[in-house]
Amino acid sequence: xxxxxxxxxxxxxxxxxxxxSCTASGSIRSLNRMGWYRQAPGKQRDLVAGIxxxxxxxxADSVKGRFTxxxxxxxxxxYLQMNSLKPEDTAVYYCxxxxxxxxxxxxxxxxxxxxxxxxxxxx
Length: 123
Known about the structure:
By secondary structure, the chain is mainly β. It has strands at residues 2-7, 10-12, 18-26, 28-39, 46-51, 57-59, 67-72, 77-82, 91-103, 106-113, 117-121. Helices cover 0% and strands 63% of the residues. The chain starts with a strand and ends with a strand. The model has no long low-confidence stretch (mean pLDDT 97).
């Protein structure tokens, strides 16, 4: 099917920056919507940012003006540039990708999650 590999998480001080990456691999025919979600301890997983195949983006109100989502279709990769990080941004970040993959002699839709990467904002 399709596998997602995330990277870029870590520990950063308040006001700092991090860039997350998520690369899809496998029998991919096309990638449609790509997005980033986050889940803090004891809370539900929430949308952070999403980007369509045409480049249209949407953001959670809490990250508007600080985070930027982008994608490189040639590399099957979605990025999340996070600036001006705050302690409340601390969470496990997951990428989510929807698209079409080659299945046998045809195609099938898929939706996959990355393994998650920890982002900790603390002094």
